[in-house]
Design goal:
The structure is a homodimer.
Chain A (H helix, E strand, L loop, with lengths): L11 E8 L2 H11 L8 H6 L9 H25 L7 E12 L8 E13 L6 E11 L5 E12 L6
Antiparallel strand pairs in A: 1-3, 2-5, 3-4, 4-5
Chain lengths: 160, 160
């Protein structure tokens, strides 16, 4: 992860992509969102969605998983180059979570995050606050999810 | 579920409570938020959290699960009385998700939802839009999560 000082508003990060299978849509819903249109093909066909689709929470937590994997890759690459890496997190929360379109079985969602704000932190002088606009877009170019999150990012250590 | 016409701003619903175990905190994190302070006790003790704690997304999706169970109970009770029940959903999204305190192993979170807004829907004349402020509070009375969501609720069928 870049240090706070190295981030710029407008930076866009491709976080990764994920294809949603029927089995994982049902497994997530069984545990966390057991509504019939996330659990059963026939019931979903009869619903306003028209076909089995993922819980909006499922679409959101896959973003989280891909983001963690993406950050881990950056850390490993930086360490391999002998560079210091900035700590990131925790997140304070998020705003304006929108489930814009259903995510159906077989849809591949591509997630991106754009830096939209950077400010210093009063409570944590060693960190800055990064605001990010995240989106997930399906294989037809349609946005299915978007939200805004704010996370602490470590500032560059002072030179001795 | 009540029909849109029977809802009032200020209505508070006790959705349910959930005690977070170490095993489920780790299982959720392994799949969706594999950060060390959600996965490993020793690493969590060395982190700014000081002990193993749940992913904020985990705290959120447990709200969803309890809400579905709560609604199902209302539907079954109404049907047992021979009453009609209103359809609810889908949710359009949510705003202002705040993770206010960590949720540690053994914490019991009590979730509530308060109706904060009611308006008719232009796009779906047979439904209204209900805005809800939801909170989760731990056994010490400390809020750990809050957010605002907006959901379609069916209007009372017209009398023949």
């Amino acid at each position: 992860m870049k240090y706070f000082e190295d981030l710029e508003v407008g930076d866009v990060t491709a976080i990764g992509r994920h294809t949603f299978t029927a089995d994982e849509i049902k497994a997530f819903a069984q545990r966390f969102d057991p509504q019939l249109f996330h659990l059963d093909e026939a019931a979903a066909e009869a619903s306003h969605f028209g076909a089995l689709c993922a819980s909006g929470w499922h679409t959101a937590v896959i973003w989280m998983r891909l983001m963690i994997d993406h950050r881990r890759g950056l850390v490993e690459a930086a360490r391999a180059r002998g560079e210091l890496v900035a700590a990131i997190g925790p997140a304070l929360g998020l705003r304006d979570m929108k489930w814009l379109k259903p995510v159906y079985v077989g849809d591949t969602i591509e997630y991106k995050a754009e830096v939209t704000g950077l400010r210093t932190s009063g409570s944590r002088p060693r960190s800055g606050l990064m605001t990010t606009f995240s989106t997930g877009v399906n294989q037809n170019g349609e946005p299915v999810i978007s939200f805004v999150s704010t996370t602490f990012v470590e500032r560059r250590p002072e030179q001795p």
